[in-house]
Amino acid sequence: MGLPNIRERCLVWTMPWLAPLIATLISWVLSPVLPKANYAMIYLAGVLLTAVTTRVKPALVCAVLSFLTYNFFHTEPHFTFFMVHQEDILTVTLLIFVAVVTGHLAARLREKVIALEDSSRWNQQQMLLAQELSACVNGPSVMKTLAQHLTQCFSFTTQTYYPGSDELTSLTAKYGLSSPHIASAATEVIFKEDKARVLVAFNSHRGCMGLLKIESDAPLTSLQRSGLDGFIGLARLAWSRVVLSETLQQEITVKEREQLRSALLSSISHDLRTPLATMIGSVSSLIELRDALDQAQQDELLQNTLSEAQRLNRYIQKLLDMTRLGHGELTLDRDWVGLDDILSVVIKRSKPLLQDVTVDISLPPEMPLLYVHPALIEQALFNVLENAIRFAPPGTAITVSAFTADTQLHIDIHDEGPGIPPESWDSIFDMFFTMAHGDQYPAGTGLGLAICQGILGAHGGSASVFESDSTSGTTLRLSLPLPETQLSSKSDDDDTYTGD
């Protein structure tokens, strides 16, 4: 910050005295070969050296001392300050004049160079602080970054306090940094200076969210105060950005929660009431018209009741799965399993839903084992297959294929349905997002694909729309990572895997 260090202090105090002494010694050494008239140039060189290594005042002192030394040792009568020759008086006068002018100019030039270096160093420190503050995502990180730079640049002692600290409460109350003062400066950074102590309060609409106490060994200089103002100005900008980001995030969370609540109520009111109404109608018909119905009609009503009850059960299970995913209660009980084993269970579960749709499975002859939670991956595949069955036209086939690429296993599920518009490719994995295509393709619950994405994400994988259009149908791609190291260790020890 331009403050003189130890080396500069030593030069300031030693050069004005040392330069004339060295010049005198050099002149004595060179006196046999150097004309006496050139001695003044040696002293002038000492003054210039002092000027370029120190500042203006030391250079002027050196010029005066050089004049006195030259007069004392090299003008007649020697070892006195009297001069009897006019040429000596002229020489000494020119010496002092040239020494003062050149010393002053050289010292001023050096001071400007030092000021430019200090300014450049200060700008670099500010840029470094601004870069680190731009990466801060919360209040504590802003305070920590500011404290580190204040300690590095000024050697200040810093201490931070957070909400809940007794010291925070007492200091903010003592120095007027607490409510109601904060209310008028919400989301601001306020600092108070008290002798060698500076208190920086980081405020938001919720009150004082942190306090930074800065202490110095001595009262702050104007240079330190200017640097501190600049650092706190940068911290104020970073703090405003953090508070604004948190406020926006809260508003987004509230909006999403409200949208989710509305979608949940809408979905429950439709997807629960529809199967319940069908079940109630079938059971009421059996109770009231049992004698008027033949066996085939009674079986049909019972089958409708069972089908709607199974549909209701699947919907409730999906709601439970989404609850577990949303609350982070999903635990992965991993095991080694083959993809063909999982698909066989999924196909078996899907048979009641197939009707006029078939499922073709195409797998490579040698598929690597998966180290996953078998039941969860089975549920994810079933959700995607159930979605494909819903939109597959009667008499068509759904194709399930798989292949490996790099360190991932990709599972493609293709149907010949009406396709998905490109703008909805990402939205179909959101909760309660549904797409209906008239009475031919009724909308689902909007939970199946969201659950699938959550399950795959927990395994380090993902689900996405690989391709889709209205003529060739839709292909959803499910990707799972292949644990190569665990695969190799499993293949070396066959006794640890039974294949069941």
From TrEMBL:
Catalytic activity: ATP + protein L-histidine = ADP + protein N-phospho-L-histidine
Domain Histidine kinase stretches: 267-484
Enzyme class, UniProt record, top EC level: transferase
Entry-linked Gene3D superfamilies: 1.10.287.130, Backbone structure of the membrane domain of e. Coli histidine kinase receptor kdpd, Histidine kinase-like ATPase, C-terminal domain
CDD domains: HATPase (cd00075), HisKA (cd00082)
Annotated TM spans: 12-30, 42-69, 89-107
Superkingdom per UniProt: Bacteria
Localization terms from the record: Membrane
Keywords: ATP-binding, Kinase, Membrane, Nucleotide-binding, Phosphoprotein, Transferase, Transmembrane, Transmembrane helix, Two-component regulatory system
Predominant localisation class: membrane
EC code(s) of this entry: 2.7.13.3
Keyword Transmembrane found: yes
Alphabetized PROSITE patterns for the sequence: HIS_KIN
Protein name: histidine kinase
Taxonomic source organism: Amphritea pacifica
Taxonomic classification: Bacteria, Pseudomonadati, Pseudomonadota, Gammaproteobacteria, Oceanospirillales
